[in-house]
């Protein structure tokens, strides 16, 4: 399970997602729903690019906002 931290950037009005578990992950979107849609594409791509081993064929992650799980995939 990958943990992805999301924070609201009030200066540019977007959610920013980063993760220590997935090198290279840094993306932004105007809503959490849009961010989740982006992550569904980016997470598997970064797993492949970074040659990260995952159990099974599913790359599960949790999107964490303010230390609370906001979304899980």
From TrEMBL:
> What name appears for this protein in its UniProt entry?
DUF1902 domain-containing protein
- Indicate the segments forming the DUF1902 domain, all copies: 2-63
The record's section on SUPFAM superfamilies has:
TTHA1013/TTHA0281-like (SSF143100)
Please give the organism. Answer: Parasulfuritortus cantonensis
InterPro entries this protein is in? DUF1902, TTHA1013/TTHA0281-like
Where does the source fall among the domains of life?
Bacteria
């Amino acid at each position: 399970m990958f943990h992805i931290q999301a924070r609201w950037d009030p200066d540019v009005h977007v959610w920013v997602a980063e993760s220590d578990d997935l090198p290279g992950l840094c993306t932004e979107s105007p809503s959490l729903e849009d961010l989740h849609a982006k992550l569904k594409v980016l997470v598997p791509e970064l797993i492949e690019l970074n040659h990260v081993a995952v159990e099974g064929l599913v790359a599960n992650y949790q999107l964490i906002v303010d230390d609370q799980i906001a979304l899980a995939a």
